[in-house]
Design goal:
This protein is an all-alpha fold. Helices cover 67% and strands 0% of the residues.
Length: 180
């Protein structure tokens, strides 16, 4: 069976394997399966693949009402197709502006998954920290977000998600219309 970390680009994607792994993550985020070592390993592999996969996972946590396994797959492997890009933009904008779809327990589950993934041998340390910083920012936890973002940038100066979190806080930008 092909594992998600065997998938290297959109041309060679084994859709069944990728779909299965996204379904496992989706089920975990919605409380239908426990966090275990296998899922942590899958998450580490996903976070190591490409930024679009990372972003698909983040969107699934931020908009659990609208992002299922098939949508995660589209966000991960066809992010530049017009329909996909438009949907991704709309979901992020709506969540940011209004809090649509926001479920704190799903974000907390995703944070636990990323934390577990970060303990895997091949985990992308900077990306794991950056994702955790972004999730903390989403929950308006300034201290945690800043700590993780700085740690991520210490590991990799070009970790743009961590830099975005720092820039957002420095400008007083917070999700769901909340101002500092």
């Amino acid at each position: 069976m092909t594992k998600i970390n065997d998938i290297t680009n959109a041309d060679t994607v084994n859709k069944t394997a990728a779909g299965t792994e996204f379904a496992r993550v989706h089920d975990y985020l919605h409380g239908r399966r426990p966090l275990d070592a296998s899922l942590a390993s899958v998450a580490a592999s996903m976070l190591s693949m490409r930024l679009a996969v990372r972003d698909a996972l983040i969107l699934a946590a931020i908009r659990p009402d609208a992002v299922d396994a098939d949508t995660m797959y589209a966000f991960a492997f066809t992010p530049h197709e017009p329909h996909t890009a438009t949907l991704m933009s709309r979901l992020l904008t709506d969540a940011f502006d209004t809090g649509d779809g926001y479920e704190p327990q799903v974000i907390e589950r995703f944070d636990e998954l990323v934390k577990a993934a970060s303990n895997e041998q091949d985990a992308p340390d900077a990306q794991c920290l950056a994702v955790r910083a972004y999730l903390a920012w989403w929950q308006r936890d300034r201290d945690t977000a800043m700590r993780y973002a700085v740690e991520a940038l210490d590991i990799s100066e070009d970790c743009t998600l961590a830099a975005i979190v720092l820039a957002a806080f420095s400008r007083g930008i917070l999700p769901r219309g909340q101002e500092r």
